[in-house]
Amino acid sequence: MGKPVVAFVCTHNACRSQIAEAMAHLFAGDVMLVRSAGTHPAKSVDPDASRLLASEYGFDIASLEPKSLTCLPEVDILITMGCGVECPSLSAMYREDWGLEDPTGKGDDALLQTMRVIQQRVIGLRARIVAGEFNRERLASNLKALGDPNRLRIVELLWAGDEQCACNLLAELEISQPTLSHHMAALRDAGIVRARKDGRWMHYRLDHDVLDAIAALLGQSIAYRAWEDPVE
């Protein structure tokens, strides 16, 4: 279950796709290999986009430069940014168009709004990758991780959204600390739970985006089967 290669493509690879590449590095680089390119690449990245990525997000803009489609490796997930961009010569396992207007030359407010939209879509794409939308084996592994009464109880205890100390979880479960650590490792590997250490205790919280994505995939699967195999 290696990281998929995700390519963000627009016409000039000077603004929207560069923003998406930066956001993916910042918010989803742990689960995807990120690239961007343009069908007709510009000579340089939009200076206002670069400035705002640096000032608002602390991104190192030195790594950003327009690239052609020929610079891309084999792509698993292709995201076109809008404006009717098509890449018929570029093969990919999955294609999706985000339909975003080009904010170039429209001022900082338009650029910042586009950045916020792209940030949320990148976070959503990360959740879908972790959930297993593009890898059936990963989805099956995630469902297996949830297929235990204690783990389902842990999800229930974390559902409110508040971070919980392992000590609090142990007080609610009739299991030992090593057993809790085993269950939490399975949920962390699935991306369902995030953790941080504070002193001698681990603290956990749910990744609701990933759980929502898993639920959506199950709903799509059930709807598909109902359409394929209608009840007589």
Question: Describe it for me?
Answer:
This is ArsR family transcriptional regulator. InterPro entries: ArsR-like_HTH, HTH_ArsR_DNA-bd_dom, Ptyr_pPase, Ptyr_pPase_sf, WH-like_DNA-bd_sf, WH_DNA-bd_sf. Residues 131-229 form the HTH arsR-type domain. By secondary structure, the protein is of the alpha/beta class. It has 2 domains: 5-131, Response regulator (Rossmann fold), CATH 3.40.50.2300; 136-226, Winged helix-like DNA-binding domain superfamily/Winged helix DNA-binding domain (Arc Repressor Mutant, subunit A), CATH 1.10.10.10. Helices cover 47% and strands 16% of the residues. The protein has a 4-stranded parallel sheet. A 3-stranded antiparallel sheet has the order 5-7-6. Helix 1 (16-28) links the parallel strand 1 (5-10) and strand 2. Helix 1 (16-28) crosses helix 3, helix 2 (47-57) packs across helix 3 and helix 3 packs across helix 8. Residues 222-227 have low confidence and may be disordered.
SSE topology sketch:
Elements: E1 5-10, H1 16-28, E2 33-38, H2 47-57, E3 75-80, E4 92-97, H3 108-131, H4 136-146, H5 149-158, E5 164-165, H6 166-172, H7 177-189, E6 193-198, E7 201-206, H8 208-228
Parallel strand pairs: 1-2, 1-3, 3-4
Antiparallel strand pairs: 5-7, 6-7
Helix pairs in contact: 1-3, 2-3, 3-8
